[in-house]
Amino acid sequence: MTAADTTTDPANTTASYDTPGLDEARVAAALADIAEQGYTVLSDVIASSLMDEILEELRRLEVDLGITEASNDFEGRQTRRIYNLLAHGEVFTRIPVHPGVLPVVEGVLDRGCLVSSLSSIDIGPGETPQPIHSDDQLIPLPKPHPPLVCNTMWALTDFTEANGATRIIPGSHLRDHSPNPLEHYDTIPAEMERGSVLVWDGALWHGGGANSTEDRRVGIAMNYCAGYIRQQENQQLGIPREVARTFGTRLRQLVGYSAYNGLIGHIELDSPAKLLDGDDGQHRMVWDA
């Protein structure tokens, strides 16, 4: 038993998401798609009420944090991004543990997976295509390999080819190399309606699309990684400990207050969870088995 498997927080499993979790058949179908094509689209899994709350908070943060467009082509010169969202409000804590998405991610990785990063991506009119890349190409391991990263994009607005839907190359996660961001590749748009979520193996070749409309394309990039590799955003240092103490048990585990397989990430032979709740003897480590 891993440390990440020892507890389940009712607050994270019964929270009001206004949409049901995924049944076993739908999870299995999604995992089959990801294994074969590298991605799947989960349609109509995020409730409008939750999306409205998230959009309202993003608008507030844009003002409070002085968010402006990026200054490079990869992040997007007409694109606004807000990083480290778990440090910025309660509504964002409902994203990593969403029952309509997390079971698929856990199927790609396992229950010891971690939050790698949580950010918003708001593509504005006139944005150009993002260079094609894979999310694991900076990890120095031969390809293909078992999934190390499983990322998701929540559609807070409709995603269309015209407004910048994510561009993907189906099956590219099985290739033996990563793309060259300076080259052009033939891609297809992952179009989806508001409330849908794109889930993909981090080895999939993809990139944000160009926005030729007058509207903004807003999404949430909820990214996960295997529990034995380093997170993209340093969750333990980026999220104040007093904020992490307000998280439910599952979210605490996902941001790194856990030990993968009862070993990786321990502190003095104990789970880092003790930094939040003290040593209550509930964190079994591999040597206790």
What would your notes on this structure say?
- With 289 residues, the protein is α+β, with helices and mostly antiparallel strands.
- The chain has 2 domains: 255 residues, q2cbj1_9rhob like domain (Jelly Rolls, Sandwich), CATH 2.60.120; 31 residues, no CATH class.
- It is 21% helix and 16% strand.
- The protein contains 8 helices and 9 strands.
- Strands 1-7-4-9-3-2 form a 6-stranded antiparallel β-sheet.
- Helix 2 crosses helix 4.
- The radius of gyration is 19 Å and the shape is globular.
Characteristics:
single chain; 289 residues; alpha+beta; Jelly Rolls; 2 domains; six-stranded antiparallel β-sheet; three-stranded antiparallel β-sheet; 8 helices; 9 strands; 16% strand
Domain module count: 2
* End-to-end separation: 8 Å
Strand fraction: 15-25%
Largest sheet: 6 strands, antiparallel
What is the share of helical residues? Answer: 10-25%
Per CATH, the architecture of the largest domain is Sandwich
